[in-house]
Design goal:
Length: 106
Amino acid sequence: MQRYPVRATHRKLLEIASLETLLRSHFDGVTVTGDGASGSFGAIARIVVRPEGRELAVEVTMNPKVPEPVAAETIHRYNRFLEEATGYSAKERARRARKSSGGAGD
C-alpha cells in the first residue's frame, strides 16, 4: 500500500463519493467498498483507494501480462488519477517521496 500526501486545495476530494467519481473518470468497474472505492483498467487488475487523514492510501494489484500499448495507457491513467486526487504531478510526488525517505538527488 502506498500513501500519497494531498494538497490542502484537494483535500475535499478525500471523501468516498468524490473518490468514486474520480475513479470512474479514469478506471472501469468502479465500486464503493466500505471505507474506500475500487476499480480496474488494463494492467491494473484492481486499484483500491481510501482516505487516511490528510493522505490518500492506494493499493494496486497489477497484471503484467498485458500488451505494451495497454500498459502505457494504464500508466498514463494512473498518473492522471493521482494528479487529480492529490494535486501533485508525478514529478512532484517523486520529489516528495525522495525527501521523505531521506534520499539524495535534491
